[in-house]
Write a structure and sequence with these properties.
Blueprint lengths: L6 H41 L7 H15 L1 H15 L19
Helix pairs in contact: 1-3, 2-3
Amino acid sequence: MPLDLTTDAQAGIAALRSRIDTIDTEISRLVAERREHSHHIQRIRLDGGGPRTQLGRENEVIARYTGSLGSAGTALAHLLLTTCRGPLPATAQGTADEDPEHRA
C-alpha cells in the first residue's frame, strides 16, 4: 500500500534525496582522489623495495572508521582500503597490475 504523503512531505523528500545525490557524488570524487594518493604511496614503497601496504596504517584507518560509525564503519573501512589498494597504474617501465579500469 503506497504512502499518502502531503505535497510538502513529497517536496521535503525530493530535496533530501537531491542532497544525498550531491553527497554521493562528492564521496565518489573523494574516494577516487584517495585511491590516487594511495597508489602513489604504494608505488613509492614498492620502488624503495618495501611492501605495498603497511598493516599498522590500515589498522589505524579501520579504528578511525569503527570509532565514528561502529561495525558499519569497520565494513566501510575494509571496503575503502580494498578499493584504494587495487591495481596500481602503469609506470614508465610498464609494470603494473593489468586492470583496464585503472590503466594510466
